[in-house]
């Protein structure tokens, strides 16, 4: 079974640790700091767009009602609970044999698409709330939109590893089972753990936007 770090940490790091464990890879020594890695991920056109968002002056406040921050928090918790419940259900189709990974692949891809759609919509709602709340938060919302677009390819590359590593893990557990059917329960547990770590990873930007909204104080 998979075991992540016992100490609290960044959820995105938990996902990368689990991916490394499934690949039987040791932690990479001397990994570059985030700012350095970001420089490799952002194209020159993305850098120009990001610079424009960073240097933009405060936008004028719209004369509209600003939703209470606790409403945004309830929205966030509702989305997270729905995604966790969907992950817990497991594959909707039975395997044709103990060696059939296809239902698990479909389940994984379905959960990833569900996360992408639900969290993407949540993140946009939080940007909208920030934009209506205060000029400084409107700038943060604009920066988040740019970062979302700029890092999309890098995100797809990372998350595309999840079903591949799960399949390799499925096959490895099966080979080492020696006829003991308990391996499948272990795989179900590990798949759920991986998908929950991915959900937490995907929610990190939305959590940051929510924290900014909650900590800004009354408008």
Task: Explain the overall architecture.
There is one protein chain. By secondary structure, the chain is mostly helical. It has a domain at 67-92 and 103-219. It is built from 9 helices and no strands. The protein has helices spanning 11-22, 34-41, 44-55, 69-89, 102-133, 135-150, 152-159, 161-175, 182-215. Helix 4 packs antiparallel against helix 5, helix 5 (102-133) runs parallel beside helix 9 (182-215) and helix 6 (135-150) packs antiparallel against helix 9. The chain starts with 10 loop residues before the first helix and ends with a helix.
List keywords for this structure.
single chain; 219 residues; mainly alpha; 9 helices; 72% helix
Summary, kept brief:
Helix content is 72%, strand content 0%. The chain is built from nine helices and no strands.
Name the structural class: mainly alpha
Q: Kindly state the number of beta strands.
A: 0
What amount of the residues lies in strands? under 5%
| Percent in helix | over 70%
pLDDT averaged over residues: 80
Sheet with the most strands, sense and barrel status? none
Q: How far apart lie the N and C ends?
A: 48 Å
- Give the C-alpha Rg: 20 Å
Topology record:
Blueprint: H1 11-22, H2 34-41, H3 44-55, H4 69-89, H5 102-133, H6 135-150, H7 152-159, H8 161-175, H9 182-215
Helix pairs in contact: 1-9, 3-6, 4-5, 4-9, 5-6, 5-8, 5-9, 6-9, 8-9
């Amino acid at each position: 079974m998979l075991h992540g770090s016992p100490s609290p940490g960044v959820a995105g790091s938990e996902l990368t640790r689990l991916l490394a464990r499934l690949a039987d890879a040791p932690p990479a020594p001397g990994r570059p700091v985030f700012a350095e890695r970001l420089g490799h991920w952002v194209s020159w056109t993305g850098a120009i767009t990001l610079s424009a968002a960073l240097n933009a002056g405060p936008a004028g406040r719209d004369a509209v009602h600003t939703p209470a921050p606790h409403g945004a928090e309830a929205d966030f918790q509702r989305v997270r609970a729905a995604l966790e419940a969907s992950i817990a259900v497991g594959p909707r189709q039975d395997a044709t044999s103990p060696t059939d990974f296809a239902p698990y692949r479909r389940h994984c891809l379905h959960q990833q698409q569900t996360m992408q759609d639900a969290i993407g919509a949540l993140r946009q709602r939080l940007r909208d709330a920030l934009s209506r709340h205060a000029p400084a938060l409107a700038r943060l919302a604009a920066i988040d939109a740019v970062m979302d677009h700029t890092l999309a390819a890098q995100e797809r590359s990372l998350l595309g590893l999840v079903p591949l590593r799960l399949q390799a893990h499925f096959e490895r557990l099966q080979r080492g089972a020696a006829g003991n059917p308990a391996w499948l329960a272990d795989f179900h547990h590990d798949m759920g753990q991986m998908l929950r770590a991915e959900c937490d990873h995907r929610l990190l930007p939305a959590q940051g936007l929510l924290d900014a909204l909650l900590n800004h104080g009354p408008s």
